[in-house]
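Re: that chain you flagged

S.,

Sorry for the slow reply, it's been a week of failed gels. I finally had a moment to sit down with the sequence you sent. For the record, here it is as I used it:
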Amino acid sequence: MNTSKRSNCPIACSLDIFGDKWSLLIIRDIHYSNKHRFEEFLQSKEGISTNILTDRLKKLESIAIIIKTKYSSHENRMNYLLTEKGKKIIPIIESMIEWGLENIEGTEI
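Prediction finished late last night. Pasting the structure tokens below so you have them in one place:
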């Protein structure tokens, strides 16, 4: 992962990690939908492509938001779990859910 920063602003630095349209949805799926495997993330209604999913999983792992562990003897079968650092993002997601439900017509959980 590129470690250069645009600035030392905590908002800018956080957006460098979560500013894309997929990373928070992957974290959402792990926490709220109990999805932990590559193929499970692909089933989410937003329709992430395999190459983007691979990239985002690697990025989130490289910055210790998620960890991957084997779930079978096959070397490519991995579970993805939130780290303690990753779990600290959940209140942000919960605030976004609350805001969306209150301010964007037609949203639902």
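What I noticed first: The longest strand covers residues 66-70.

Talk soon,
D.
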